[in-house]
Amino acid sequence: MPGFHRPHADFHSPLHLKVERLCVERGGRTVLRDISFALSGGETLVVTGRNGVGKSTLLRALAGLLPLLSGAAVLEGAGEAEFSAQAHYLAHADALKAPLTVLENLEFWARYLDAGHPAQSLSPSAALEAVGLPHVAQAPVGILSAGQKRRVALARLLVAHRPVWLLDEPMTALDAASRRRFAKAMQDHCALGGIIVAATHEPLGIEEARSMPLGAMS
Ligand SMILES: Nc1ncnc2c1ncn2[C@@H]1O[C@H](COP(=O)(O)OP(=O)(O)OP(=O)(O)O)[C@@H](O)[C@H]1O
């Protein structure tokens, strides 16, 4: 039976993500066929390839938002919760509520995501500091620039710890300083034993990241 399996593990085991022969369809067409890779805690995988090759599809499938035609993704060492509950998924869209203030958005996400690992989670205010936006805390998100909204979306990753980050074009709209800041946040996540799978056309700023080019399906 294809799907996400959750082997028994405790929070003290090193993380290991194993993706085996993943196949995913979109609109009746096989977009991903036999995608396999393995990552240990501390590692980053950068998924590359031309527009439409299936990078976002891979991340959405790993996040549990698309069914698998076949294959499996197994996360070991992250506890008993479902795989999708162990991963942050950052999509192209920022998932912010325009009428709420920046701080209210982050407070919502901290509650919704249930910051169950307080030692590794930041408070909403601290997360805003981390993305360099404390001065807009009380502004409605709707009035922010595209890059500022992206930075608030990135702050969401910090208010509730998740061992796996699935990031779709995380650097979109970010200026140079914000890219450096987020590269540091990703490095810190890996230094704590986390795993990152990122789809991007641009450099992530993580020198030791592995690269996986996706090829076109015939
Ligand atoms: N909802 C959908 N229904 C049918 N086909 C879809 C759907 N969403 C995406 N596709 C198709 O799936 C394929 C892969 O799309 P995907 O968004 O994963 O590509 P990508 O590699 O992330 O592209 P980009 O670099 O442009 O972001 C494309 O051919 C696309 O047209």
From TrEMBL:
Q: Which domain of life is it from?
A: Bacteria
Q: Name one GO biological process term.
A: cytochrome complex assembly
The record's listing under Pfam families reads: ABC_tran
Record bears the keyword ATP-binding: yes
SMART domains from the entry?
A: AAA (SM00382)
Which segments constitute the ABC transporter domain? 17-218
Q: InterPro entries, per this entry? A: AAA+_ATPase (IPR003593), ABC_transporter-like_ATP-bd (IPR003439), ABC_transporter-like_CS (IPR017871), ABC_transptr_haem_export_CcmA (IPR005895), P-loop_NTPase (IPR027417)
Q: Which residues cross the membrane?
A: none
Entry GO MF terms: ATP binding; ATP hydrolysis activity; transmembrane transporter activity
Provide this UniProt record's keywords sorted from A to Z. ATP-binding, Cytochrome c-type biogenesis, Membrane, Nucleotide-binding, Translocase, Transport
Family to which this protein belongs: Belongs to the ABC transporter superfamily.
Q: Which PANTHER family match?
A: ABC TRANSPORTER I FAMILY MEMBER 1
* NCBIfam families (UniProt xref): ccmA
Q: What is this protein called?
A: Heme ABC exporter ATP-binding protein CcmA
Q: Which organism is it from?
A: Methylocystis heyeri
